[in-house]
């Protein structure tokens, strides 16, 4: 979905239906596939926290998971920018990079208003902030027990209010904790496609109401003054229920996600998320300089999609094998950190559990 959004938002010529305001509105809802990625993170982290030995080991495991691909992609962007003198690397680059590169390697831009080198890495800043918050909460609960929630809950509310796109991390955790599980909600969860469509339309409408600001630069405090907050509540509920339906394996979408090609895409999804913007930038630049996209007319976006997708998959496959598996395994050996046991990704919930709930 995020790949499709970058194609739609490329500024290239396309067919008339996608060029209309309504067509672009609907097509650009794919941008919020990032929030669905947050759902997955929240779901997975709930189990990871249970299996980790302590908060420090949990953070170490998350760093090993996140940083290798991020570091490689950021350094490639910097090298390409310096070589081509484009994308903000035209003049005075070295003095800026001395500060910007370490900041980006630590995944700080996004949560913090800092210069972001990698266009997709803002979400990793949200992820790392979420992991740190979970680790701190774990430590507080071990030290103070239930009394810690008097601090945890208000701090969490403030964070969600100021970073509303991260609220879907909470949706994933709620699904993982099987809460709430009333019969009426379980019946709704049997229609994940419709529910995810409601979420996407709600979030896209919030973006339209936030213009000219991007949704990531707004807060729920601002949303409270108009229709954006009710739309956010509806969208959050729809996303949580739709994701619950996906986890349960409901409908054609559940069957589709259980196919081998989709399992493979799930395996390389993290590398794909970070590498596809880099590949797409290179492909677009080359095709424009060659005059191919200009000559394609309304087929330009379709051609861009067809050329960039397989190249992105090849790079992502290599990244997953080398960085996510081999390099991460080497780092764990060096740190004497064992690989945590992981359940199959989004394994459908046993039917008897769904029915009994």
Total domains: 1
**H/E series, N to C?**
HHHHHHHHHHHHHHHHHHH
Q: State the major sheet.
A: none
- Derived from helix and strand composition plus strand pairing, the structural class reads mainly alpha
Give the tally of β-strands: 0
Q: Please estimate the helix content.
A: over 70%
Textual characterization of the structure:
- With 357 residues, the protein is mainly α.
- It has one domain.
- Helices cover 73% and strands 0% of the residues.
- The chain contains 19 helices and no strands.
- It has helices at residues 2-8, 16-19, 21-27, 33-51, 55-84, 93-105, 122-144, 149-162, 167-176, 183-188, 192-210, 220-223, 228-248, 251-257, 260-267, 269-289, 292-296, 300-334, 351-356.
- Helix 4 crosses helix 9 and helix 5 (55-84) packs antiparallel against helix 6.
- The protein is globular and about 65 Å long.
- The relative contact order is 0.13.
- Residues 341-357 have low confidence and may be disordered.
SSE topology:
Blueprint: H1 2-8, H2 16-19, H3 21-27, H4 33-51, H5 55-84, H6 93-105, H7 122-144, H8 149-162, H9 167-176, H10 183-188, H11 192-210, H12 220-223, H13 228-248, H14 251-257, H15 260-267, H16 269-289, H17 292-296, H18 300-334, H19 351-356
Helix pairs in contact: 1-18, 4-7, 4-9, 5-6, 5-7, 5-16, 5-18, 9-13, 11-13, 13-14, 16-18
């Amino acid at each position: 979905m995020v790949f499709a959004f970058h194609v739609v938002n490329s500024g290239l010529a396309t067919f008339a239906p996608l060029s209309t305001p309504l067509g672009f509105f609907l097509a650009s809802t794919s941008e919020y596939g990032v929030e669905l990625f947050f759902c997955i993170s929240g779901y997975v982290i709930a189990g990871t926290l249970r299996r980790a030995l302590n908060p420090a080991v949990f953070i170490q495991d998350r760093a090993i998971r996140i940083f290798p691909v991020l570091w490689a992609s950021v350094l490639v962007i910097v090298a390409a920018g310096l070589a081509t003198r484009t994308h903000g690397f035209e003049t005075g680059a070295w003095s800026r990079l001395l500060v910007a590169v370490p900041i980006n390697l630590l995944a700080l831009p996004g949560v913090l208003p800092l210069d972001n080198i990698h266009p997709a890495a803002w979400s990793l800043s949200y992820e790392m902030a979420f992991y740190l918050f979970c680790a701190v909460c774990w430590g507080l609960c071990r030290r103070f027990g239930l009394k810690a929630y008097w601090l945890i809950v208000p701090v969490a509310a403030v964070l969600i209010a100021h970073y509303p796109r991260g609220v879907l991390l909470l949706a994933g955790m709620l699904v993982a904790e099987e809460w709430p599980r009333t019969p009426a909600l379980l019946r709704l969860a049997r229609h994940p496609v419709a529910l995810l469509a409601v979420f996407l339309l709600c979030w896209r409408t919030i973006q339209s109401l936030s213009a000219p600001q991007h949704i990531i630069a707004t807060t729920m405090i601002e949303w409270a003054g108009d229709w954006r907050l009710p739309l956010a509540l509806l969208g959050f509920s729809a996303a949580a229920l739709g994701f619950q339906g996906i986890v349960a394996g409901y409908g054609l979408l559940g069957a589709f996600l259980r196919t081998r090609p989709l399992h493979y895409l799930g395996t390389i999804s993290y590398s794909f998320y970070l590498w596809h913007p880099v590949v797409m930038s290179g492909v677009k630049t080359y095709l424009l300089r060659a005059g191919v996209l200009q000559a394609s007319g309304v087929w330009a976006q379709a051609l861009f999609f067809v050329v960039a997708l397989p190249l992105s998959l090849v790079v992502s496959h290599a990244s997953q094998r080398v960085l996510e598996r081999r390099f991460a395994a080497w780092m764990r050996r060096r740190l004497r950190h064992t690989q945590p046991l992981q359940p199959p990704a989004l394994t459908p919930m046993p039917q008897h559990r769904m029915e009994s709930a």
